[in-house]
Amino acid sequence: MSFPAGLLLAFLVSCGPAHNRDAGKTVFRYNEAAGITSLDPAFSKDLATIWACNQLFNGLLQLDDRLRLQPCIARSWHVSDDGLQYTFFLRNDVYFHDDSVFDRGRGRRVTAGDFEYSFKRLADPALAAPGAWVLNDVARDEDHSLACHALNDTLLTLRLTQPFTPFPSLLCMTYCAVVPEEAVAAYGHDFRRHPVGTGPFRFKYWLEGVKLVMVKNDHYFEHDGDTALPYLDAVAVTFLSDKQAAFFEFVKGNLDFLSGIDASYKDELLTGDGRLNPEYENRFQMLTIPYLNTEYLGILVDTASSVLNHSPLKSLAVRKAINYGFDRVKMMRYLRNNIGTPGIYGIIPPGMPSFDSMTMAGYGYHPDSTRLLLAQAGYPGGENMPEITLSTTSDYLDLCKYIQHELAELGFDIRIDVNPPATLKELKAQAKLPFFRASWIADYPDAENYLSLFYSKNFCPGGPNYCHFANAEYDALFEKSLYETNDSIRFQYDRRMNRIMMDEAPVVILYYDQVMRFTGKNIHGLGINPVNLLSLKRVRKY
């Protein structure tokens, strides 16, 4: 069944229930509480924007739900023996969305030259794109331009400055999507709200803060067997900031999809042990998988910093005492309905290939060890130990209060400082916080993404080493791992780095998160993956 464009748009913009009944069979509806500020893939720095851009754009490569590399616009690729030269062989049947910037309004064929343009645009300092870093390992030519060249319409080369095994995974990120130069030139800054891509859905309408509409791309190149994708006629995104209100819309049937769990409705939707409430089993289905997201408390360990003057956190024994001093299993059961895995294995989360619960070093709940370590640090039973301030945001206040209470039983005096998210982020990036709550969601599925947080050359504000952790052995292993192409050897390096870092305790791992998706029983083919990427091209709605 298909709809005239005007009729379909009228339905999608409307919020009336009668229209929902008329077109609900082919329109996938979800809410994005975080909002979207741009539909330019070069600026897709948050999950909300990534989700929208993933429907509108494609790149050279893509990841399947098991995080395996798959072809996309590149039908195949080759890596030179020295790991420096990448050659991509492109499909010749991929077209940009129809748009007035093209001759007669018909989208033209994508060529290797479009990727050369898109990558050089992404890397251009004048654009100031947050995704420019993904091309940091690409070499520069004599004229200082990116060493990316279209040899003909279907042949593209990229040259790196040094081997970097995870590089193909970076190319799967929406930052690296192909965009047409004509559209960027014609729309200028407004390309952010008038995107032209190649994806399974094309842009139709966006009333910022209210609704985004994407409609089926009838010329999409991917198929499911003999059937052209996508199956849906359209995708409609609303922007209710109140997550509880969005939950009520989902329960009423006005939304098809709910992602994650919020404290405002978790006890309504889930049982105490994290299962779907039996009341909803006949109406909804729940999908869940380990999320490549590690939640932790960071500790500044740069003893040269004035922030640590008179701080007991300078002491390794105190940092270890904190790690042993609270029950993560109980915390997960009572505060998160067992959603996620207690953080007892180190920084690398379950779901990463190098994760191994038998060898990964971490901390369990051992209050006697905490008491012993405090005594070794000169604070028996917490006596004479200065107050420690833990900085967080309101979203994690319950977890921090739990840790505060547990540690107080062992002699710690923890004060909680609640900050707005933007303030906490800025203070953390400037290394001005001795003890802070943080999380790290993998940008790409490789342990290097997490281990880079503790590489000494990544000290913030220039990099993500917010703890200012430095260890010569760790750095040497990290650099060796960048060149190593044998996965088994790389995994050994990963585990050794994890052990070194946990032995020095610059972090307190809280838990490894879980992707949770809820849909109506009439939704099929949604899928789920450890990076929580939303792909709607194979979704059917009955």
Layout of helices and strands, plus pairs?
Elements: H1 5-13, H2 17-23, E1 27-31, H3 47-56, E2 61-63, E3 69-71, E4 74-79, E5 85-90, H4 112-123, E6 148-152, E7 155-159, H5 167-170, H6 181-187, E8 201-207, E9 211-216, E10 223-224, E11 227-228, E12 234-238, H7 243-251, E13 257-259, H8 266-269, E14 284-299, H9 316-324, H10 328-335, E15 341-342, H11 367-376, E16 388-392, H12 397-408, E17 414-418, H13 421-429, E18 435-441, H14 448-451, H15 472-483, H16 487-504, E19 507-520, E20 523-524, E21 540-541
Parallel strand pairs: 1-12, 16-17
Antiparallel strand pairs: 2-3, 4-5, 5-7, 6-7, 8-9, 9-12, 10-11, 13-19, 14-18, 14-19, 15-19, 20-21
Strand content: 15-25%
- Reading off the top of the CATH hierarchy, the class of the domain at 291-514 is best stated as Alpha Beta
Measured distance between first and last alpha carbons: 12 Å
The oligomeric state of the chains shown is single chain
CATH superfamily of the domain at 291-514: Dipeptide-binding Protein, Domain 3
Radius of gyration: 25 Å
Spans where pLDDT lies below 50 across 5 or more residues: 1-24
CATH architecture descriptor text of the domain at 291-514: Roll
Q: In DSSP terms, counting alpha (H) and pi (I) runs of 4 or more, how many helices?
A: 16
| Secondary-structure class | alpha+beta
Main sheet overview: 5 strands, antiparallel
CATH fold title of the domain at 291-514: Dipeptide-binding Protein, domain 3
Overall geometric form: globular
- Number of β-strand runs: 21
Average pLDDT rating:
93
Give the fraction of residues assigned to helices: 25-40%
